[in-house]
């Protein structure tokens, strides 16, 4: 079967296109541990990376403490969101190496660059604003956890992006992210390629457990794969 031309690449944000040194998961770890727990950052990353953040808290608590108290989850989430807003206002947030070059190279190839994230829209938009990126300039669209009914690993965010740009064939879409749940999201959407990258939450070994098509170490390594 002839391979269809790639029409769109869907990128995760934190850890993939945005370098924030795991700020979100360090903040999440603090919020959870402030509720009387003692989880390591490694544990929080293993269960929380890439997920909608309320679901990330739920996964960490259920996995390591057999806790499923929705009231407690809401309290932790509210504290986390306040702390994260403060952290993002005060800490450096940088683009990942080669991301702007990659966006330009995709534009030259008439391939859409879409950002998707387990953040809500307000948080994601504030990060993008701090980077100085604009929709329609550096990237073509943003889809967030608050835009869809079902979050990763369900394919709703990718399907919404496809619908926006009238892409019918999911094999023409590439998904790339730094967590196993990003890879699973791409697979569940039927993406032509689901790719892990080692610049964020999960190691190459962890990423490989999700059976990605490739694992890369730098965003620019994506180009030969789609060419």
From TrEMBL:
The keyword Glycosyltransferase does not apply. Pfam families: HAD_2. It comes from the Bacteria. One of its GO terms (molecular function) is phosphoglycolate phosphatase activity. Keywords: Hydrolase. Coiled coil: none annotated. This is Phosphonatase-like hydrolase.
